Amino acid sequence: MKTGIITKPSAWLSSVSGGGHTDELFMGWAVGILKEEGEWMQVVTHYGYRGCLKKEGVEVGNAKELQKREQTEKMLIITKAFTDVMEEADVHSRILCTLHRGSFVSALPKSENGYRRIRLTDQTEGYIPAVSCKDRKDGDGYLYEEDPDTYFLRQRSDRIFTEEVFRRQVILSAKSYLGTQYRWAGKSAEGIDCSGLVFMSYLMNGILIYRDSERNHAYPVHEIPPERMKPGDLLYFPGHIAMYLGEKEYIHAAGREDSFGCTVNSFSPEAWNYREDLAKSLQAAGSIW
C-alpha cells in the first residue's frame, strides 16, 4: 500500500473531495492511500478512519518505509497545546513553525539548554523545549501489518502502564483541553469536538480508539454496566460521547449554547453544572479494562 505522512502542522479530512470537514490530522501522522483523484486522495488514517485528503502537504511513501520509521526512529509526541519549533536551542531564535498537541516528530541525538533537537516530516531540523514532548506510545501498525483487522484490539497489553496510572493520565490529558472552543471535526486546542476530545486523550497515552461517538467492536473499548464505570471510562449518549471523571462528573466537548466547548458537567441534579438532558439519555458506558 502507498502511504503518506502529513508534513503540515494540520490537515483536514473530508467525507468527499472538497466536502465538509470530518477529522483533523497533525504533523507526522500517517495515512494509507487508497485512491488518487486530481488534487485529492482517498485515505485511511493510522487509526482506521477514512476520508478524502488534499495531496498538498503529504509526503508519499510506502508501508515498508512507514514500518522502518516506527522501528528505527525515536518518535516523540507533542504534549503542549502549541509548541514552537526553533532554529536554534534558544528562546530568541527564529521560529520555524508551530506544532499542535499530538503532532509526531523524530528525536535527534543532540539536546542542549533544555531543548531537544528534532526532525519534522519535511526533513526540517530544529529544537523544541524538552518539556513540550514525550515518547510516542501508539503506532502505525494498522497500515503495514498483515492482520490489520485485529490491530486495535492488540494494543492494550504492550503499550500502557497499570490501570490506575492510565486512568489518572488519560483524565489529565482530557483536562488539558478545558476551555477549548467546540469545533466540529476538530482535535486541537484551537477547537475540538466530543469524539476528538476522548480520542486525543487516549492517543496521548498510547491507545487508539474509534474516532466517532459510537462504539465499534474493532477497537478496545467494550461496553460495561454504567454502575461499574470508573474515572477515565467513556460515556455514550445519542450522537455524543464524554469521559467519566468520578463523583458523578464527566468531561466533554459540547456544541450547545449553554455549555459550549470543553467543559465539565454532572449527573447530580443538585450540582450547579447538572445537564438534565444528558443525565436522562445515557445509553452505555465503555472501558478498555
Secondary-structure topology with pairs:
Blueprint: E1 2-6, E2 10-14, E3 21-26, E4 30-37, E5 40-45, E6 50-54, E7 58-62, H1 63-72, E8 75-78, E9 82-86, E10 95-100, E11 104-112, E12 115-119, E13 125-129, E14 133-135, H2 156-159, H3 163-175, E15 187-188, E16 191-192, H4 194-203, E17 222-224, E18 234-237, E19 240-246, E20 249-256, E21 259-266, H5 276-279, E22 284-287
Antiparallel strand pairs: 1-4, 1-7, 2-3, 4-5, 5-6, 8-11, 8-14, 9-10, 11-12, 12-13, 15-16, 17-22, 18-19, 18-22, 19-20, 20-21
Oligomer: single chain
Using the alpha-carbon principal axes, give the shape: globular
Supply the CATH architecture of the largest domain. Alpha-Beta Complex
SSE pattern, N- to C-terminal: EEEEEEEHEEEEEEEHHEEHEEEEEHE
Helical stretch tally: 5
Query: Which ranges are low-confidence, i.e. pLDDT below 50, for 5 or more consecutive residues?
Result: none
The CATH superfamily of the largest domain bears the name: endopeptidase domain like (from Nostoc punctiforme)
Query: In what range is the share of β-strand residues?
Result: 35-45%
The N- to C-terminal Cα distance equals: 33 Å
How helix-rich are the residues, as a percent range? 10-25%
For the CA atoms, what is the radius of gyration? 19 Å
CATH fold description of the largest domain: endopeptidase fold (from Nostoc punctiforme)
Q: Write down the overall mean pLDDT.
A: 95
For the biggest sheet, the summary is: 6 strands, antiparallel
* Broad structural category: mainly beta
Q: What is the CATH level 1 assignment of the largest domain?
A: Alpha Beta
Q: Order of strands across the biggest sheet?
A: 17-22-18-19-20-21
